[in-house]
């Protein structure tokens, strides 16, 4: 179970001290089932309270799903290792699988050493969240309004914020839903929702891209789905690591339902939730038995058009933390094409999901790739209402920080999703555009297509790169198209020659990058706004930094199990030291990136760890890592060291690039 770093160090020290005892009481090395394990704390034993454990000795990916079927709440996944929160009964069930558990805390009341520090005051509690929504409405009454969509178990209002250029009317525009804080302890998700509210309203009228979205979309933001649980988690001044709502369960002293296991599509079907009220993943006595999920369900159903019943909400994101993942349905099955999921639909989810993840550095994958879940909001929104929906698992990708990153991290954590949110919103009218099948699935009277002659390019800081934008009339009459770009590096500009064209014509886009721009990769969104249709395309911009300070190795290098391999790049034309804004771009083909440790080795032997077994069961690495190399002489032979720390999956280092 991840805690705040300071408390975690204490917990881990206790865990290390208990390791010998834990090994004696958990499953033996032979894999035979073990007897009952002592539960951390007498009170926990009496109440059957869930406690945090590390689960080790996983032998196959199927073991992760088997642990999930016990009802234990899996909080972090890496190959051969899990962090879970489990009741005594669930621990015994894990042992029967032949796995070991190591307790991470001996405190019977939970992580009691985690006092709410004054630095975390920037997080919004329930009253502050409602006040923040009201402040947005007061500041922007022509484009924002608030409504109560239901009540929590304890009677708190569940509030939704509407943002649209004609906020008092239903205009028939594509609607987008953002939900947050289904799980009580995931307070950062509330901040993400409020960030989006401030972004859309605060920059309306000044940012052309945001203005177009607000004019052409209807946004609904529910920043706190689980207000009772959120308040309970921090109300005493001590984090309770509480996940569920606060609804009592008849016939037991256990409290709470896991809201994201209480949705009606495939509820309780597939071992992805628990029937035990003591479990962290308790699914409730019936689908929508929690008033909070019922309230959001009723709101979504209310958005069906009264004339014909067509759902007006076209796209949705449900925010969770943590892990830095972009997840798509289905969670209840590992299959990609099943009832309610065609090959084109899955291809759209995967293609768009990877595009979104390219903007924020997250890992994209189907939800069940981590482990099977049933009764989730994503499965219901798509399976029941055909709403294209994703889950974003927010910052951090580090279980030692976990659910409680310091408030000082809020700006960078929420701001990292700006481009993903805007790109997703642009696709809301027709997500099939991501696979080039918008004319098939979203026919319109007048449509145009837009492509880029080169979809990627490289610019040295202080230089420029160009591409050709080609448009075609897909159906109906030609239309006038205004061109723009977003997602550029700070200070960079994109100029179109000409800036406005008629469909069937071309334009040249020139991106100019200012000197001093840090080397990195950017997903630049090129938008064509026509009189009746909007189209987007993505240009991959690589900024390489100082001329002569670049290197690349495109030679494929196999990565065997439990083996370290090294790929060299020699730089000999870069004067002086490397910079504090150096970058390492890595492309690895591998079916389970949680196996891998990536390390940059400087010419003098100094090592810089880029990635240490993060990303869980996702496949492939396509990522640029910023590194401060200002203390290193630039010229010499640099090495990318790749270590596969587990067995069962192998891969290949496809290529890597170094910018100093």
UniProtKB/TrEMBL annotation:
**Where's the active site on this chain?**
393
Record-linked PROSITE patterns: CARBOXYPEPT_ZN_1, P_HOMO_B, PEPTIDASE_M14
Q: Where is the P/Homo B domain?
A: 542-660
Would the keyword Transcription be found if you checked this record's keyword annotation?
no
Which Pfam family is one of this chain's hits?
Answer: Peptidase_M14
What this protein needs as a cofactor is:
Zn(2+)
Per its UniProt record, what InterPro entries does this chain match? CARBOXYPEPT_ZN_1 (IPR057246), Carboxypeptidase_T (IPR033810), Galactose-bd-like_sf (IPR008979), P_dom (IPR002884), Peptidase_M14 (IPR000834)
Q: Which residues form the Peptidase M14 domain?
A: 122-428
**Swiss-Prot/TrEMBL keywords:** Hydrolase, Metal-binding, Metalloprotease, Protease, Signal, Zinc
- Please tell me whether the keyword Metal-binding is annotated for this protein: yes
Which segment of the chain is annotated as a signal peptide? 1-29
Q: Which CDD domains match?
A: M14_CPT
Task: Give the family per the record.
Answer: Belongs to the peptidase M14 family.
According to UniProt, the name of this protein is: M14 family metallopeptidase
Source species, please?
Micromonospora fulviviridis
